[in-house]
Amino acid sequence: MAAGPAPRRTLLVLGDSLSAEYGLPRGAGWVALLAARLARERPNVQVVNASISGDTTSGGRSRLPALLARHKPAVVVIELGGNDALRGLPLPMTRENLGAMVRAAKDAGARVLLVGVAVPPNYGRKYGEDFFKLFDEIAHDEGLGRAPFLLAGVADAPDAQALFQDDRIHPKAQAHPRMLANVWPALAPLLR
Q1: Is 111 helix (H, G, I), strand (E, B) or coil?
Q2: What is the pLDDT of residues 124-157, one digit of tens each?
Q3: Options 3.40.50.720, 3.40.50.300, 3.30.360.10, 3.40.50.1110; which CATH number does 9-191 get?
Q4: Does residue 2 have a pLDDT over 70?
Q5: Is the torsion defined by CA of 94, 100, 101, 103 positive or negative?
Q6: What residues are labeled active site?
Q7: pTM of structure
């Protein structure tokens, strides 16, 4: 007897403007590129992009329960925190919100990938370092995978300014394949 097709699984991306294609043509962002790659390589995985420009960890935390109930994802990718930092919100609050989202997704049976982000240097070295470290701390404490820095090879590229839109916060379309390349090594094992 021939085996039927593999059951459909959902990968949920919960992020901010970096994942919501802010300022880009539809289909040009790293999440859309991920969906296209999975359609070719793992057609049983569908991507739901629940990212909202401007979202904070508080917003993501409040939206996540309904998203988990509706989509029942096998994998949840959390790319939030950048707007918390840009607003200078307290790091313990960001940490608590990220941790709560990770635990909620795990409790719902999903594997979780935490995507690291950083803040511009004008926020002060200590705040920037502490903010960046909290992603490692949460990943360690919760025993999960982590994509170290979404904008590696973009924000720190020799020609970084050319890779960003005029606001100098949001990458141009040509940077998004690199962003996907930053996420893929940590994400691929969760899809097996």
Answers
A1: strand
A2: 889 889 999 999 999 999 999 899 999 999 999 9
A3: 3.40.50.1110
A4: no
A5: positive
A6: 17, 167, 170
A7: 0.95
